[in-house]
Amino acid sequence: MAEHETVGELLARRGITRRALLKYTAYLASVMALAPSASKVMAQALSETRRQSVIWLSFQECTGCTESLTRSFSPTLEDLIFDLISLDYHETLQAVSGAAAEEARLAAMEENKGKYVVVVDGSVSTKDGGVYSTNAGKTNLEVLKETAADALAVISVGTCAAFGGIPHANPNPTGAVAVSDIIKDKPIINIPGCPPIAEAIAGTVGYLVTFGSIPELDDKGRPKSFFGDSIHDRCYRRPFYDRGLFAKSFDDEGARKGWCLYEVGCKGPVTYNACATLKWNGGVSFPIQSGHGCLGCSEPNFWDKGSFYRALPADTGVNGGVVAGAAVAGAAVGAASAWMARRRKERAIEEAKS
Amino acid sequence: MNRVVVDPITRIEGHLRIEAETAANGAITSAYSSGTMVRGIELILKGRDPRDAWAFAQRICGVCTLVHGIASVRAVENALDYKIPPNAQLIRNLMIAAQYVHDHVMHFYHLHALDWVDVVSALSADPAATSTLAQSISSWPNSSPGYFADVQKKLKGFVEAGQLGIFANGFWGHPEFKLPAEANLMAVAHYLEALDWQRNVVQIHTIFGGKNPHPNFLVGGAPSPISVDSGGAAATAVNLEGLNTVKTVIGKMQQFVDQVYLPDTLAIASFYKDWFARGEGIGNFMTYGDFPEKGMDDPSSWLIPSGIILDRDLSTIHPVDMNDPEQIQEFVSHSYYDYGGGKDQGLHPYVGETNLNYSGPTPPYEQLDVANSYSWLKSPRWRGKPMEVGPLSRVLMLYAKGHEPTKELAAKALGQLDLPLTAMFSTLGRTAARTLESKIIVDQMQIWLTNLIDNIRAGDLSVHNPVKWDPSTWPAEAKGVGFMEAPRGGLAHWIVIKNGKIDNYQAVVPSTWNAGPRDTGGQPGAYEAALMDRHTLHDPKQPLEIQRTIHSFDPCIACAVHVTDPNGEELTQIKVR
């Protein structure tokens, strides 16, 4: 009985109907930009499986990524850990410390060999054999290799795990690298951001659990459904950019009117993430809406690309140097990026149909 | 003599290892605290634009997100004598206060509660009796028999499915769990409710700082321009709608603290009164002060005062000066660092050295070499003395300075538990202090918001002072210290600026004070001392007692270890384009 109960049986016993399950999967389908029919497939798949074993490893990290996950409005952390996944190891959340915690990790690996998902937050220190970060007396490097060996897939949550992040920033004192620099023989999904948007973490885990497959990824290993468009393309302040209306400082008339933050250093044009569409913490705002430019935190090496308050150089395709020309240049770039966004959407629809 | 090793300590921020020596009866005779991860953020900060520093420093920690951002902008502002507008001060106060209440509630329910609450026992609770219990201690509306029956059903389904997830291998049924089944069920319900509640709390950060975790800050003010009549209601997040959301969220926070957190703390504590008689740290307490009404340069306007209490003596408050080279110093005798002048000297943060030199056992290892270096944490000291920082220090400081709301609240709580004031010097005293200060701080939030709205009504929209924004206006050399009271205790960043770039950056953080190893003279840090105060392990394989006292400090180890200087090499300047 209990040993092999499926998610469907569990939900049924808790009084959650197939209808409710469909509602959840429909939400997931919409947020992942899938065809509406996908939700039925997902509901079917979910009702037939045991909760997916997930082992969450924390390395050189600040726990901001786990904190972000707790903020997810849909699916919530409670939805995930009670209904969809079995979070068999997670240092910040699990009840037990010490040897019993390590035993839980090893037991989950043994019981679900080849089928468990590994989530990593934090970079991996490699210098001097990895002595700069240990856990239970073992280096992160050793624990990652050991745990990933029999995993179904690896999800790198946050810019540190995905791209090395702040420990990797110049001069990278501890030889910190990304998970994908170590693990070469498993599918890896990157969900960068410092931290990532809660729903991007929860939605991707939900997708993987539901379909048992990897969502479509971009060239940096990021799910296209969350990282397919630049923030600039989807920013509500974009019309001001196109008209050449810029805040010149953080509290001038333009800043208060919600004009474009390009000249005070916004990295939105070169940053791919869903901040402008999903927004943050239940949709109440996102960095640009509150008045600070985008830091570019979901892009590799964003810490080493110069001051956050320096306007992007002209070679990114947007002309900030000559304000008089900005409106014209912006309009051209705007049209091009809108076309690209449309193209991406069309492709996604075609792929969903096929 | 047995050696008990607990690694990882779970339900904390970061990577912490505890090793304890126990006598034959399980009594802890010696304890050692070790931070096992380092990144090197201060070194990474060198050579960068001081205006960018907050973003780097903030990534020291994503749990107490915000605190290093605040300390960093204050350090730059202190170095440059850069004044911020009153509205920015109020916005910062609101954001810091939101962090406190969010952090403390999540610590209590999601990180600490499972030391006291037996989740499995909740399955045998009577929902009707649970309802009676809940209604006897609070007017919180989610308290019907049907509500608790639903929570129990959810938990039962979960346990019976055979995949225990985060609850796997717990010490369930341990004789040290003393709560009746009904209290366990009530606590499980509130564990889930707190998860839901906190999603709204962080929206205060999202409105003013754009996101959470890691909201945005700005040297010289707040990056939160206020839109009223210019550009329509949607121009920025800080508009009528946003401020209304802040008001609503503060109301929800007050309600949760008053009706759930405070009564739950007292109810649970009443079953564990023996834990008010063990787990004292070192008896020295320090606060830096925070929540200014009129700015950081007017200490008389701070809600939380600064000072030092020695040897439990609340009648004498000693002043603390962060610029005095003789007062705050860091030692590395038992840390994986070297000092140019020898491993046994103490250095003030302005002249701090952090030459990283790992000398521990080669991983994988079983045991640390505690006679020598055993932690990535340093040992900060005030005039050579170890200090405890955090909620207990703040509540004691407010009490000692005669803050009436604190005295009333403490008298009420201790009266209800029938305990003397000295019971606060303990494991549960620390936990209770966290709850009490949440109440004190949440009650100030509505006042700060009202002041902000009054200023806006009077026409003052200013949130940022642009006067010193341009580095060409700065002196060639400047140094300063930015400090605050983080949820886990006094936090300070020291910065040295040369030619518009960061020349040196040092952070001395709360969990370094509390979790650091022994110093040159062999004096233990607060964690170590607390574990050596009347702890006997019922079963060394289930070190529940260690978890309880360590969690009472709310460890934040990524914060505590953040420095490095690889192998004493010459520090290279980073070119910032």
Description of the molecule:
With 354 residues, chain A is α/β, with parallel strands linked by helices. Chain A has 3 domains: 1-50, no CATH class; 51-227, NADH:ubiquinone oxidoreductase-like, 20kDa subunit (Rossmann fold, 3-Layer(aba) Sandwich); 231-353, Irregular (Cytochrome-c3 Hydrogenase, Chain A, domain 2). Chain A is built from 16 helices and 9 strands. Chain A has helices at residues 7-13, 18-31, 38-47, 64-70, 77-84, 99-111, 140-148, 158-163, 165-168, 198-211, 224-227, 231-234, 238-242, 253-257, 287-290, 323-353; strands spanning 52-58, 85-89, 116-121, 124-125, 134-135, 138-139, 151-157, 176-177, 188-191. In chain A, the strands form 3 sheets. Chain A has a 5-stranded parallel sheet, sandwiched between helices. The model of chain A is unreliable at 315-340 (pLDDT under 50). With 577 residues, chain B is α+β, with helices and mostly antiparallel strands. Chain B starts with a strand and ends in a 17-residue tail after the last helix. Helices cover 38% and strands 12% of the residues of chain B. Chain B has one domain (2-38, 62-114, 197-560): Cytochrome-c3 Hydrogenase, chain B, CATH 1.10.645.10. In chain B, a hairpin with a 2-residue loop joins β13 and β14 (501-508). Chain B is globular, with a radius of gyration of 24 Å. At the A-B interface, α4, α5, β2, α6 and β5 of A face α1, α4, α6, α7 and α8 of B.
